[in-house]
Design goal:
By secondary structure, the chain is α+β, with helices and mostly antiparallel strands. The protein has 9 helices and 14 strands. Helix 6 crosses helix 9 and helix 7 runs parallel beside helix 8. Pfam families: HATPase_c, HisKA.
């Protein structure tokens, strides 16, 4: 009585374990007939106990399980091994349709009867497989799209660069002849004529500035912007640039505060590019600061780099526009900014040129009408040399 009770308890215990497994699970005897199946098996494959237990696995569900790959596993592979893992099988079941499954099997020998039983677990990966295939397809499509976008960007940059060159040549002639006329080199002009020539000259110079910015941006995007390195007396350059913007600042009655260190060391940098960066940033400070406001420049340095901060008490930048200002042609829409001219390329170009030097570019603002602070760092010595000339180094 105790043996029967113990046997019954063991059977109930083993069936409880089988039923706790989330994946469908079948227990087969050595003749490949079903000894028991988990609750999840019955639910997933829409089977019942009567048509399952004691049946040859291949005959389950009106021979739905007569799968060539499954036969290979159970009759060829398993007799030679005690187990197999993650064997992928695809099959179209009458009750549940097409399924992709991973089969895992363990062969166990009973100690008393010497018989063997087979535990066969079935993991349905149909949805996961479809998602993976979809991801692979999407990645391939994304690669193609990325390649197309990169190609389009290159074509755009090359077009802008070529068009800028083509436009600059006649525009330089227009500006040159306008200057000759304005200077009255070949005869005097009446007041109206002189005003018209001045308008042509001012507009021409402004247009040339815009074209140069577009050309610079096109070169940067195309990866064709290079640096011509020389030893640059940065303290002298800062005083030079602040002097260039002093007249405009005075016209607006701006208070310019300079805190430029006397011991600022010279740096290895592209002179024209650094002057372009500083002039651009300081011009912005003047342009976007209302009359009687304040602008300033201060510096500090370590043994390896210098830091330049250009600040103002101007219109500031809203938090939602902080990233947008580095997008080409983006202009912040405020009543004050509509009075100013520009392409919106100044900051993106300045940031790219600082990065090209191996420096850092950080812009901060507490919000609209709360001013702006731009901090740039430039290395005192450049690290990577592309080519070396007698008088200068070129970096790219």
């Amino acid at each position: 009585m105790n043996k029967i009770s113990t046997k019954k308890e063991l059977l109930e215990y083993s069936e409880s374990i089988v039923n706790t497994v989330r994946e469908p699970l079948i227990v087969l005897d050595q003749h490949l007939r079903v000894v028991t199946a988990s609750r999840s098996f019955y639910e997933f494959f829409r089977a019942n106990h009567k048509d399952t237990v004691g049946k040859l696995i291949y005959n389950l569900g009106n021979n739905q399980w007569n799968i060539p790959k499954l036969r290979e596993l159970l009759e060829t592979i398993l007799p030679q091994k005690t187990s197999f893992d993650d064997y992928k099988v695809e099959h179209n079941f009458k009750t549940i349709g097409w399924r992709t499954m991973l089969l895992n099997a363990r062969q166990i020998k009973r100690t008393q009867s010497k018989d063997r039983i087979i535990l066969l677990s079935i993991e349905d990966i149909t949805e996961r497989n479809a998602i993976q295939e979809g991801l692979v397809k999407a990645n391939k499509e994304l690669e193609v799209l990325t390649s197309d976008l990169e190609s389009a960007a290159r074509v755009k940059s090359e077009f802008l660069a070529n068009m800028s060159h083509e436009l600059r040549t006649p525009l330089n002639s227009i500006n040159g002849f306008s200057e000759v006329l304005y200077d009255e080199t070949f005869g005097t002009l009446n007041d109206k004529q002189k005003q018209y020539v001045k308008n042509v000259l001012v507009s021409g110079k402004h247009l040339l500035l815009l074209i140069n910015e577009i050309l610079d941006m096109a070169k940067i995007e195309a990866g064709k912007m290079s640096l011509t390195i020389s030893h640059l007396p940065i303290r002298q350059v800062l005083h030079e640039i602040t002097g260039l913007t002093a007249d405009t600042a005075n016209q607006k009655k701006l208070n310019m505060c300079l805190d430029i260190a006397d011991d600022l060391p010279p740096i290895e940098a592209d002179s024209l590019k650094v002057k372009q960066i500083l002039y651009n940033l300081l011009s912005n400070a003047v342009k976007f600061t209302p009359d009687e406001g304040q602008i300033g420049v201060k510096t500090r340095h370590t043994d390896t780099e210098i830091e330049i901060i250009i600040w103002d008490t101007g219109i500031g930048i809203a938090a939602e526009n902080m990233e947008k200002i580095f997008e080409g042609f983006f202009r912040i829409e405020t009543p004050y900014s509509r009075l100013t001219e520009g392409t919106g390329l100044g900051l993106p170009i300045a940031k790219s040129l600082v990065k090209l030097h191996g420096g850092e570019f950080v812009i901060e603002s507490e919000g609209v009408n709360k001013g702006t602070s731009v901090r740039i760092t430039l290395p005192i010595k450049q690290k990577s040399v592309v080519k070396h000339n007698e008088n200068q180094n070129s970096y790219s």
